């Protein structure tokens, strides 16, 4: 009888029941194989009580509909990508002002209850030369990753004290706005198409469940190819987070809780988006 009691007592530890517990148990091996142990500024821990790590793992599980094998594969790929590209270091690098100036910003918005919403902005009308900005896909991905990491920093993931609830809610997410005002011949440019396709592919792998919603504003109806490209990489549940709209001011009706703090061109009365956070820029024309 005694050995039987010992076996029953050890069983839960030997066979973790939940996908999250199994994922946590596999984490040390995943980190060892990838050669990288940091995700979005969080040093991943195999300690199940480390809430920031648990939330990171939950995001990868949710991106794979709870499938552990898929989540493990994606996390391994994301860690390997971070080891190669070092996105946390890219945040402090300076990028070419002519190519990327005015193109990306990060803002914070508090609602009446004091809850903060982080928004990353991509202002494509600022692009002066499509080939210069999008032609070098590697350089564009680096700039885009730096902007994304800047936004992730505003989420303060290391301050998380509890895992995500089972009901599916996730307060550790950003919003993203893509503004196509004054964009001409955007849809026709092969450099833009190639950079967009690669960005969607890489970021859906490397940054799962970090965007609650994506708003595409001032969108010409003819730009349907872009949304078609997204369908190749993203699950139907993810596509529900995408909101194309032909007017920028419509954004305030979508984001009623923070509408007043939005910039005027998006229906609010707040500061211009250009006063938000942005990556470091350098003027390469100066001697």
TrEMBL record:
<dbReference type="InterPro" id="IPR011074">
    <property type="entry name" value="CRAL/TRIO_N_dom"/>
</dbReference>
<comment type="similarity">
    <text>Belongs to the SFH5 family.</text>
</comment>
<keyword id="KW-0445">Lipid transport</keyword>
<keyword id="KW-0813">Transport</keyword>
<dbReference type="GO" id="GO:0046872">
    <property type="term" value="F:metal ion binding"/>
</dbReference>
<keyword id="KW-0256">Endoplasmic reticulum</keyword>
<protein>
    <recommendedName>
        <fullName>Phosphatidylinositol transfer protein SFH5</fullName>
    </recommendedName>
</protein>
<dbReference type="GO" id="GO:0005886">
    <property type="term" value="C:plasma membrane"/>
</dbReference>
<keyword id="KW-0408">Iron</keyword>
<dbReference type="GO" id="GO:0043001">
    <property type="term" value="P:Golgi to plasma membrane protein transport"/>
</dbReference>
<feature type="domain" description="CRAL-TRIO">
    <location>
        <begin position="87"/>
        <end position="274"/>
    </location>
</feature>
<keyword id="KW-0472">Membrane</keyword>
<dbReference type="Pfam" id="PF00650">
    <property type="entry name" value="CRAL_TRIO"/>
</dbReference>
<dbReference type="InterPro" id="IPR036865">
    <property type="entry name" value="CRAL-TRIO_dom_sf"/>
</dbReference>
<dbReference type="GO" id="GO:0008526">
    <property type="term" value="F:phosphatidylinositol transfer activity"/>
</dbReference>
<keyword id="KW-0492">Microsome</keyword>
<dbReference type="GO" id="GO:0005789">
    <property type="term" value="C:endoplasmic reticulum membrane"/>
</dbReference>
<dbReference type="InterPro" id="IPR042938">
    <property type="entry name" value="Sfh5"/>
</dbReference>
<keyword id="KW-0963">Cytoplasm</keyword>
<keyword id="KW-0349">Heme</keyword>
<dbReference type="InterPro" id="IPR036273">
    <property type="entry name" value="CRAL/TRIO_N_dom_sf"/>
</dbReference>
<dbReference type="GO" id="GO:0032541">
    <property type="term" value="C:cortical endoplasmic reticulum"/>
</dbReference>
<dbReference type="GO" id="GO:0005829">
    <property type="term" value="C:cytosol"/>
</dbReference>
<dbReference type="Pfam" id="PF03765">
    <property type="entry name" value="CRAL_TRIO_N"/>
</dbReference>
<keyword id="KW-0479">Metal-binding</keyword>
<comment type="function">
    <text>Non-classical phosphatidylinositol (PtdIns) transfer protein (PITP), which exhibits PtdIns-binding/transfer activity in the absence of detectable PtdCho-binding/transfer activity. Regulates PtdIns(4,5)P2 homeostasis at the plasma membrane. Heme-binding protein that may play a role in organic oxidant-induced stress responses.</text>
</comment>
<dbReference type="InterPro" id="IPR001251">
    <property type="entry name" value="CRAL-TRIO_dom"/>
</dbReference>
<dbReference type="GO" id="GO:0017157">
    <property type="term" value="P:regulation of exocytosis"/>
</dbReference>
